[in-house]
Amino acid sequence: MTTPRTTYVTTTIPYVNSRPHLGFALELVQADVLARHRRHRGDKVRFLTGTDDNSLKNVLAAEAEGVPVQDLVDRNADAFAALRAPLALSFDDFIRTSRDPRHRVGVERLWRRCADSGDLYRRHYEGLYCVGCEQFYTPAELVGGRCAEHGTEPRPVAEENWFFRLSRYAGHLHELISSGRLRVEPAVRRNEVLALIESGLHDFSVSRSGTRARGWGIPVPDDPEQVVYVWWDALGNYVTSLGYGTDDPAYDQWWTGADRRSHLLGKGVVRFHAVYWPAMLLSAGLPLPTDILVHDYLTVDGSKISKSSGTTVDPAELVAEFGTDAVRWWLLREVPRVGDADFTRERLVARANADLAGGLGNLVNRVVTMVHRFRDGRVPGRGTVAEGAVADGAGGEGAGGEGAAAEGTERLVAVCRDVAGHVDDALADFDFRRATAAVWRVVQEADRCIDGTRPWELAKAERAGDRAAGERLDGVLAALVGACRTLADQLGPFLPESAAQVAAQCAATDGRLPTARPLFARVGAE
């Protein structure tokens, strides 16, 4: 895998008609892992998230509460930004489309560039509009007369709007996606987009009347009676946050000049990101994203997590109850690359207790305790069979080493040596479950190593005068400490807080490891 030099990672920006839910937390955590992983591999990374403030959904929610729209938007946007601490997020930028001075000027510039290309025109339109999707549908696109995404009946709307000539770009988009120049993952979503294009693309409305929008949103340049369609407005955040429309050099560095421009999004908005947005960029003469990375949904009792439906789980409350790493670990270990995942607290508790408390925490405690018990806290070093067996750095530099691995540690040393490559491959495929499974093989192999080599029996034989048993014990302990250090290194993008704790537990001070202490308390009740 060729390591890119500059990586720009983004999430979608959610409507702020209510507080955040666990479904969006999934996307935030996935993006955070990609950003941390690429930083760890030496990339320059910019990680962007934010909120979509200019939606009609936000206006209607404010009306229902009887509060000013800006007040509702500010309150809920603050709740999204506040997920940084409980979810241990490392985003570099957070854009708010109603407040950020970078945004409006960039949206206006993007609009004018598409207008200059001849791709914007105004005409009367009548159609069925789903407020939940902020999108017009044809009757053929509905299921039993209802929006497939929200299960609601779209409202009939008739007005004069600006339209974008999407149909002009059908052939170009098909070639970009089918060739892989615009990568859409996983393949099931790529095929879905290609089928959509092949069925025929129709020009779409890119403005709303100011009256229907209640005056909320960005006015269309040179047509103040119209408001820029919320999706046009929102999609622009990926470049407006970089100063597109100003002289900010960040745009050239992170958009024009980036090696990878990766958008993470849910399957319900693939059309907007893999069709509308690339067509807008082609019209404006701007570079396209390189990767459209699509996740499926979380469900609760089989129903999609959704603010509008009331089926929701508050991620901040979940972290307060179970801890940051328990929540992150469930999202990364349980959610498949393709297919929805059903969330329950029982599943989260079971995974945290089995993997974190009973797996990782127990392993580190056992290893550190044995080093103290058998070697007074000092990790065996050079001059023993362990030379070269201590995994260190990304993937365990020297895990194979110049010397031979101690008898019984060969498989563990090999797993430590290879884990970085497996993680790289899995994350390149946008497969977090496979990536975490690759890391977890180190825990499993370390446990097998302990069971197979039985260090306590080697120590007993050494005390009885068996020098070879003592040398082998040195090698086993060194390999086990090396495995724990490899875990600390490779878990960093997934569980940053726990990885730091493991690293501290396995770091020698004045030649000795700290006294073993529990890293994880069991959570909840299984």
Automatic annotation (TrEMBL):
Task: Kindly give the Pfam families that the UniProt entry links to this protein.
Answer: tRNA-synt_1g (PF09334)
Taxonomically, which superkingdom? Bacteria
Q: Which InterPro entries match?
A: Met-tRNA_synth_2, Methionyl/Leucyl_tRNA_Synth, MetRS_core, Rossmann-like_a/b/a_fold, tRNAsynth_Ia_anticodon-bd
Enzyme Commission number: 6.1.1.10
Cite the CDD domains for this sequence: MetRS_core (cd00814)
Q: Which GO terms describe its molecular function?
A: methionine-tRNA ligase activity
| Entry keywords, A to Z | Aminoacyl-tRNA synthetase, ATP-binding, Ligase, Nucleotide-binding, Protein biosynthesis
Q: Where is the Methionyl/Leucyl tRNA synthetase domain?
A: 133-367
Q: Which family does it belong to?
A: Belongs to the class-I aminoacyl-tRNA synthetase family.
This protein is called: methionine--tRNA ligase
Specify the species. Answer: Streptomyces flavofungini
- Which lineage do the record's taxonomy fields give for this organism? Bacteria, Bacillati, Actinomycetota, Actinomycetes, Kitasatosporales
